[in-house]
Amino acid sequence: MTLECFIHCFVSLFDLVVTWLGLRGSNKIDVEIVYKSNDFIIVNKPEDVFTNNHNKARPSLDVLLGKKYPHLVNSNLEHGFYFVHRLDFVTSGVLCIALNKRACAKASGAMQKRISQKYYIALVRGHVSKNHLDLTDSIGYCAREAEGNRKMCTMDKVCCTGPRDAHTRLVVLERGMFMSYPATKVLLQLITGRRHQIRVHCSTIGHTIIGDYTYSNRKDTSPSRTFLHSYRLELGVDGINVQTIDPFTKAKLNGLWIPVEYINGAGDDCFRLFDSHS
After folding, report:
1. Mean pLDDT, residues 110-122
2. Annotated catalytic residue 137
């Protein structure tokens, strides 16, 4: 391991401990607004921030938005805002919040009818051999871990309870090396929206998302974060289509990620990569 990698690992572990102990003040976390109207706020959620959370000592989006837009907080709601959907604590990226009940109903309806389209970018362990994959294993709760992180698993596991159909589509963007180990950057489209779906499906094919402590059997602890990002949301309401920048480039990861094979570019019309292989 190089000195740079060692330092990065140490800083990552320190950040992890600080976050879980609630020692990082939410005042220091900025929430990027990528879209705002009278009906919706769409944010680029930072990683390791709860969507909403009863423990206000830990950073959560409802508290951060309340401080940024106190006049928009709905005192009749437990968490102050209508959260149309959620992102895992570890996942960064595009997340939609409705500002009134009518807008929430429209957006929620679009998601339930699968009019909305959600795309994610991830860095996974190893080189994914096929450039396009449809991952369709049903997902349920792991009875062995009913508490804590409420880990999920696929229905082929004996411990799986209440499995439901799940469908993730995967396209390889780049293959390369992360901290001197083989890795692949992938673009993923959620067809269904099960809890931890992308993380479970990636681990099932033997390509766990880098930094995913839960689905690496608690072995992947060195990276600064779990490398999963909600990249684009086509809401299917009011023509709203929003996209962030790719956070997993060589420059943004300070050279720890080095792509060596370029397969596809996500770009502004990433849906084309999936439509061409329907």
Report:
1. 96
2. no
